[in-house]
Write a structure and sequence with these properties.
- By secondary structure, this protein is α/β, with parallel strands linked by helices.
- The chain has two domains: 148 residues, Aspartate Aminotransferase, domain 1; 245 residues, 3-Layer(aba) Sandwich (Aspartate Aminotransferase, domain 2), CATH 3.40.640.
- It is built from 15 helices and 17 strands.
- The strands form four sheets. A seven-stranded mixed β-sheet has the order 4-12-11-10-7-5-6, with helices on both faces.
- The two termini are 39 Å apart.
- Bound molecules: pyridoxal-5'-phosphate.
- The site of pyridoxal-5'-phosphate has 14 residues, from helix 5.
Amino acid sequence: MKMTVKEKYAKYATPNFGVRDFEVVGGKGCVLYGADGKKYLDFGAGIAVNSIGHANPRWVKAVAAQASKMAHCSNLYLTSQQADLLEKIVRSVGMGRAFICNSGTEANEALLKVARLHGMRVTGEEGRKYRVLTAVDCFHGRTLGALAATAQHKVQKGFSPLLDGFSYGNFNDLESFEKLMGDDVAAVLVEPVQGESGVTPATPEFLKGLRKLCDKYNALLLFDEVQCGFGRCGAFLASQLYKVKADGVSMAKGLGGGFPIGAVWLSKTCADLLTPGTHGTTFGGNPLACAAALATLDELDRCSLAANAKKLGAYLGKGLDEIAKKYPDKIKLARGLGLMRAVLFKEPLSNAEVCSKLRANGLVLIPAGSNALRFLPPLNIKKSDIDKALKIFDKTMKGL
Ligand SMILES: Cc1ncc(COP(=O)(O)O)c(C=O)c1O
């Protein structure tokens, strides 16, 4: 007898993602089509990836056109698609250079290697200035370098000994970073808005203070904008809202609008550390991925989606605050920036329970942290769809 999709996963998939039971077959804009024939309002956007919605016609046309010409050719050759994307990233972030890879964790690995090269340039030898400071509850990825940077016990458990040289300060607590800082620190890496742990925006004093601290100790300030970048918080990069300039930025998720791609931007002063042979990738920057990213970034510009995220993000935030006040025994608080928001629940209510009830009522959200749900709709979301989502959320909270 033919196996179902769920049965195939149960039998053939490695079990690291746990058991999943929601099968999807497609999407259009902010609507996700379930295999059950139902339509769902998608306020998860594939964990902040589908920034221009599902099956955006311009994106589909660009990807199909590029696929019919050439998907891949390696980094041994030049392509106009990669050249255009490099230019777009550098023009949007600032004077410097960019490197294209395939994911957020890879982008962070590249930043960590740049940090070590920086330390070697400053001290003249390896192993003297290589420590990297990151923040408790951050998330930087699952590869061994990014994992060592990710100061969360539940993510690191089982993988000791971790890569050496990481120390963890408390997010939004500058003093805790000052205590850890020293001449052996090569870089500080933080998310301007912590995503996975439940959407916590940095305070301006924290990011500005880290900039000063890094300058004082000749360490690089690195921002992980994998989740909060590309218009989601109301500017191309979230850090641009804070007017704090990093030496390096990692990016992924929303950059490709659904196509796997990551990137690193490096300031003029540290881009030259990546001399020939120091880093590389087979797939990174292939013309198909670059065409997808260019189409996504064109759409961000054409429809002013960062401005939309700012305006409608504030609207969504206000709506969530009102609902939080309405159910004080169930909701601790709502917080976020732009269209990157979360609601934190009070026990005994669990985010898993709320998430499945919401889905049954037609709204898809993403769990975060210990007991939160994230609202990460596509950036071209309409006010009427936010109203629908708020209505479903309110109705669901009432019934719990
Ligand atoms: C801030 C941040 N950095 C890095 C990553 C890792 O990205 P990827 O899953 O593409 O490797 C994530 C993924 O959730 C993230 O949110």
